[in-house]
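P.,

For your records, the input lines for the assembly:
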Amino acid sequence: MEILFALIIGSLTASGVFLVLRARTFPVVVGLTLLSYGVNLFLFASGRLATGAQPIIGSTETYTDPLPQALVLTAIVIGFAMTAFVVVLALRSQADTEDDHVNGKIEATPPVDTEEHAEDAR
Amino acid sequence: MNHWLTAPIVLPLLGGLLQIFMGYAPLGLRRTLGLATTTLLLVVSVALLMLADDGAYRAYAFGNWAPPFGIVLVLDRLAALMLVVTSVLALFCHIYSTRGTDAVGRHFHALFLFQLMGLNIAFLTGDLFNLFVAFEVLLIASYGLLMHGGGTIRTIPGLHYVVLNLIGSSLFLISAGMLYSVLGTLNLADLAVKVPQVSGSDQVVVQAAGMLLLIVFALKAAVLPLCFWLPQAYSTATAPVAALFSVMTKVGIYAILRVYSLVFGDDAGALAHLGMDWLFPLSLLTLAVGVIGALSAQSLRRLTAWQVIISVGTLLAALSLTSVAGTSAALFYLINTTWVVGGMFLVADLVARQRGSVEDRIVTAPRMRSRTLLSVFFLFGAIACAGLPPLSGFFAKVLILQAVTPGWTMAWLWGVIMVGSFLTLIAYSRAGSIVFWRNVEGHVKDPGRLTLPVTVSAGALIATSIVIVAMAGPISRYTDATAQQLHTPSAYIEILDTPQVNGGSEQ
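Structure tokens returned:
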């Protein structure tokens, strides 16, 4: 289970970092979301993984640490609010600059990548 | 338990909530209540400073959960000092905002007060995860404030600021998770107890977490590789917001000082002074980049924004000496630079309002109506920032230069600070002589008249430089005591013994 969990966190974070480094706001926002998923799972795992254990002492034979769950809950709430904010901001920037490039409108430099160009023309 | 410890958090919280419900109330009423909240906050902060001056640590356990199980607020000299620095700056920025900034958006006062709440939580908290929450509170308010006033020019720097800080928050959570997974606690005092006890592979995890935390705080403080978002964001924000934000980088510095003097401080065994060997060269590079940026600045606001980075470099260079004298000098410099740089943002805005479409760009323009007064403000601010003799910047820099022990460190520190100060001086002289002397005859149509509150608030922040010199004795006595307190982390740990308060009816 630990291996699977670690692989999931790793791939989420890696995809998140990759997307954050893109030049358009939409992939960046998705990247931030993936990053926060990875981080939340990581935080959850910091209390060690256990199956069939409850965070209440005495309810089952073994118990699991309740604190990381509280931390994750806080992190999820904050992350959700921040994502909502950044989505609105990205829309605003798209409306203001009529472009979804993270630097606003980029000057049209001569060697334009054809694929990018096709997207822009749309 | 002293309930007054919660006052710097509860006051702006209640004031901010009131402002939200009063979104449609007359502007005058909102201003009065907003300013009253900020004034009360200043009074409370000064009272807490006097309380903390006896050198004791005061802990407030929320919900009567004894530390390390609950969240604690801890008041010590450093926290009280930061509270006062923030609330003095905030009061003058708030007064300045009544010039019209607060009329642009409906929720300016609410955002402003929530910003102060976030800052105060960050300064008072004794819990690492609570510090994360404080960062988020102050960040979400700062996102709103940064884009206050709208306009395309603010959207893009705002987007960069938000995305960078979201990545920073993720890193913060990762490092908090790593620390918790090994040490089983996030209470700062408890961390300080547990860190020296780890060994073997656990120690590597703690070390990695510590370095990650340093990256997060360095992003907040705008240390070199992570500082390029700052000039654009600060120079496009409205003046009172930019002025208030001169304390935002200091939150990162505060966090570095708190965590790395307590958790990874003198008593941390193998992990003592973690990352400080990295911080010293980086801070000098930050200083150098700040100076280069200041020399290249095209407008007064951008010049001041680069000055923020110069201050960060100077401050961290002094802090990374990890000596009592260095920390004390850094704190003295922090008071000076926060207030004066805030004042410079306000002065730059006053200048911009009198020069029409040229704004604050460093070019020839029609003469300003209140040229004499503004040039005096600018002169005093520039002298205090560059660190020339009569004003406080000079004394702060002398203290920093004195704090270093002879050796390679001294050669680098003296060299970079001296050359940096000289080049900063050139940047200010160039900007000042063009803006104030190289004028064409006639004035612009809209005079942008100086009103009393605006002049007083900008002037007062600049004049704090004189006040700091006049009161240099008591202030340096206080910063010495603060540094002494920070370098004896064993005393902080005693807050873990805070007993539960038993009510009469309980057993």
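Two observations worth noting. Chain A touches chain B through 35 residues (CB under 8 Å). DSSP finds four helices and no strands in chain A.

Regards
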